[in-house]
Specification:
10 strands
């Protein structure tokens, strides 16, 4: 598995690339705009040129910002408009995929219906793929279980351009004991059995500050939280996942990015070939 981090772009793509190189990233994730604002963004010619030049050989995946709630896109037009805007920003840079939370709603059925329509409209309008991310289980979150993710995937019905991004902390916080390899075998088997081989497209590699089943989304440093190192050893050395990318979204604290990357590297088996760039 290719390993990296979520890296900020606020200081420009040159800085983003330099930080990715400094940390030894083989893949990165970014927000394409301010994740806490509805304000739209546009790219300059210089932005597009810099991105194309710098990230020609470093895979980049985007993440939908915090505000659009695609499970309520039928209630507030900003939710779909925000999603569409960010997907368009991705397409303009040549970013092929955007990770999206499935949103939240009191009625899971209505939430799945609205989210499916939102994703469908984005896919129809733009040449991007959408990776549906599982939730930690808080509130009325849609996608807090594998069954809900599968239901949404099937409701959208585009297996080639819709896949899953599995967040290790969210799985644990929603009640799945990802410390056990048998649990991973069950998750992968269920998802591929229902949605087809290759439906898992990306990983968020996060430890959890809160215990299993807490339903509280609190990412923590690799091996320092309630999950521990074993989960990440399973994933990094699983030949079924060797072609995928995974990014850490651990808290930015001092030199912890460097330490988290060092831990991840230490978990890689020398017997498992590294994926080619």
């Amino acid at each position: 598995m290719k390993i990296g981090f979520h890296v900020p772009i606020a200081k420009g793509f040159e800085h983003t690339y330099a930080e990715a190189v400094r940390l030894g990233c083989e893949v990165i994730q970014i927000f394409v705009k301010n994740p806490r604002s509805w304000a739209e963004k546009s790219w300059s010619d210089a932005d597009r040129e810099a991105f194309g030049r710098l990230f020609r050989d470093l895979p980049v995946v985007a993440h939908l910002s915090y505000l659009p709630n695609i499970a309520r896109s039928d209630e507030d037009p900003r939710n779909l408009a925000g999603f569409m805007h960010e997907a368009r920003l991705c397409a303009e840079l040549g970013i092929e995929a955007i990770v999206a939370h499935c949103g939240s709603r009191e009625s899971v059925r209505k939430g799945i219906d609205a989210a499916a329509r939102s994703v469908g409209e984005v896919l129809a309008a733009l040449p991007v793929s959408v990776f549906l991310e599982n939730a930690a289980g808080q509130g009325g979150a849609v996608g807090k279980s594998i069954a809900e993710l599968i239901a949404l995937h099937k409701r959208i019905g585009d297996a080639k351009r819709v896949g899953f991004c599995l967040d290790t902390a969210h799985l644990f916080e929603s009640g799945r004991d990802v410390r056990r390899k048998t649990v991973w075998d069950a998750i992968i088997g269920e998802m591929e059995g229902r949605c087809g081989p290759g439906c898992i497209r990306f990983f968020h590699l996060n430890d959890s500050k809160t215990p299993k089943g807490s339903r509280r989304d609190r990412h923590w440093h690799i091996g320092k939280g309630c999950i521990g190192e074993g989960c990440f050893r399973f994933l990094l050395n699983d030949k079924r996942l060797a072609h995928l990318g995974g990014v850490m979204e651990t808290p930015k604290m001092g030199n912890m990015d460097e330490k988290n990357m060092a831990v991840m590297r230490s978990l890689l088996s020398p017997l498992v070939p590294r994926p080619s760039s």
